[in-house]
Amino acid sequence: MTNIAVLVSGGGTNLQALIDAEAAGKIENGGIRLVVSSNPNAFALERAAKAGIETAVLRRKEYDSAERYGEALDALLREKEIGLIVLAGFMTVLPDSFCAKYENRIINVHPSLIPSFCGEGFYGLRVHEAALAKGVKVTGATVHFVSEVVDGGAIIAQKAVEVEPGDTPESLQKRVMQNAEWILLPQAVSDFCAGRLSVSGAIVTRQE
Ligand code: GAR
Q1: Taking a C-beta distance cutoff of 8 angstroms, is the pair 82, 5 a contact?
Q2: Which of 43, 52, 69, 97 would be 63's cystine partner, CB 3.0–4.6 Å?
Q3: CATH number, domain containing residue 121
């Protein structure tokens, strides 16, 4: 059984997708044990409390450096014997030391088809604003392992979503969440916990 920690900063719809998948028995061999928020006002904390999941708040500004922040987070995770960390709309960049320690044990969801519209500065609605400004006709979501390079780790799964005429960043964000993120993320978490993912360099292979 893999103990899962979900890291959040905002609304927590991806956390909700994970909670719902677990309740429906769709996360094979894994359970969400802890939700950590970088923002004390995140609605995601209410979602976690409602589901009876333990929560913690770790604010970046309360630590002198990213390293100290990473150490505090690591201490929390070790206490709960966490084997998988899921970044579900977590807006704090983790230090290299933390990413290295948890190599291939941190999964992130990003709201575009990486390598488009990703990296430093591309998060949340900004990603969809950039996609619309570029005039792409197809966008989507990516689930990937986290490395020291922002949005640069090995890709686990991607799903394309059409841009429609008249889309706003908000309407596009909603379609990408509903049609891609909320499906891909629980699936990837289940695959990880069931031991179906193997990583070799940049390539992730999924065994049936
Ligand atoms: C999601 O769209 C997620 O992909 C994105 O933030 C949103 C969080 O929504 N993450 C990033 O942009 C990370 N670079 P949620 O709190 O409702 O899950």
Answers
A1: yes
A2: 69
A3: 3.40.50.170
Mean pLDDT, range 99-116, rounded to an integer: 98
**Does 144 contact ligand 1 (Cβ within 6 A)?**
no
**45 touches ligand 1 (CB under 6 Å):** no
Number of domains in the chain: 1
Please indicate whether residue 128 is annotated as part of the active site. no
Structural domain that includes position 143 = 2-206
List the residue whose alpha carbon is closest to atom 17 of ligand 1.
13
Taking only the tens place, the pLDDT of each residue in 26-61 is 999 999 999 999 999 999 999 999 999 999 999 999
Q: What is the pTM of this model?
A: 0.98
Catalytic residue, chosen from 22, 69, 95, 110, is 110
pLDDT band at 208 (very low <50, low <70, confident <90, very high): confident
Rounded Cα gap, residues 179 and 159, in angstroms = 8
- 29-32 LR contacts (CB < 8 Å, sep 24+): 29/1, 29/2, 29/193, 29/194, 29/195, 30/1, 30/2, 30/3, 30/4, 30/84, 30/189, 30/190, 30/192, 30/193, 30/194, 31/1, 31/2, 31/3, 31/4, 32/4, 32/5, 32/6
Please state the atom number of ligand 1 nearest to the C-alpha of residue 9.
16
pLDDT in tens, 65-76: 999 999 999 999
Query: Binding site: what residues are annotated?
Result: 12-14, 68, 108
